Amino acid sequence: MLLAAPSRKTYHLQMAPQQRKGSANAAELLSRRSTGLGNTRTLIRHNLKILRGILLQENRTFTKVWSKTSKSTVMYENCKLYFENYQHCYSCVHVEPQILYKLPTRSKQEKIEDTLMCHSPVEKSLSSPSDHKPSLLALTANNWLIRLSAETGEELQRVYLSPNYKFRQVSLRIQ
Questions:
Q1: 75-160 adopts what CATH topology?
Q2: CATH 2.40.10 residue ranges in the chain?
Q3: pLDDT of 71-123, one tens digit each?
Q4: b/e string for 1-13 if b means 16 or more Cβ within 10 A?
Q5: Of 96, 97, 98, 100, whose CA–CA distance to 86 is shortest?
Q6: What pTM value is reported for the model?
Q7: What's an example GO cellular component term for this entry (predicted)?
Q8: Residues 6+ apart with CB under 8 A from 157
Q9: What gap in Å lies between CA 68 and CA 53, rounded to an integer?
């Protein structure tokens, strides 16, 4: 058995930064966020702390502004709410959401399976003026890829993908 003598090393201990036991005010948390102190988790936690502090004030009263129910998933993108599988679109810019468009009822074969919001790059000039406005790429159950205007719901383009393959989702891959 081999025994080694303990080495003499000097350890310097650093104290952890002092943490406050009370709650920080919103201005202090916002200034920390703007300077970039902390990591992403810390920022999210601080943002939620600010929101919680604002919402849970004792003198806070809430007023019901608007409500809508949907059997399908409600999606939100670019200040727009999409209901009934992207068939109904509401603008969220105003105090009370306003309907932008309602698409005509589609058959089961033309049901929208997946969508992707598209915005044109500012620095490129595109052939059609409608190409510069935001649009919604919609994949249907019968393999059609439809480009709809995000403002009016008007069909801008329609492309048949393939009779041999079944497409289920649209996604953007940047490599």
A1: Thrombin, subunit H (2.40.10)
A2: 75-160
A3: 888 988 888 899 988 889 999 888 888 999 999 888 888 888 888 888 776 66
A4: eeeeeeeeeeeee
A5: 100
A6: 0.60
A7: Cul4-RING E3 ubiquitin ligase complex
A8: 146, 147
A9: 27
